[in-house]
Design goal:
The chain is of the alpha+beta class and 84 residues long. It has a single domain, classed as Riboflavin kinase-like (Elongation Factor Tu (Ef-tu), domain 3, Beta Barrel). It has three helices and five strands, in the order βαββαβαβ. Strands 1, 2, 3, 4 and 5 form a five-stranded antiparallel beta sheet that branches. The longest helix has 4 residues. The protein is globular and about 35 Å long.
Amino acid sequence: MQLEDDYNLHDQRIRLEAREYGGNVSVNIIPCKIFDQPAFVLRTDANDAGLGDHPRDIVEIAAGVKLRDRFDLKDGDQVELWVP
């Protein structure tokens, strides 16, 4: 999801270290909602530092459902993301 401005992680993030889940990168997780669907903003350390695959105005969203299918979303669609 591309935002109008850079997104800065806040202090209430959940930290998941790579070694804890057997991955290659550590991830910051922030609960959010999209279409009243519980979800999470995910951001790697590299992306947070502006050195990763995505600029800081791009956020990755993970949910328990495939959001594109559930809400018929396509690239460029505008949605509202709620982050506490």
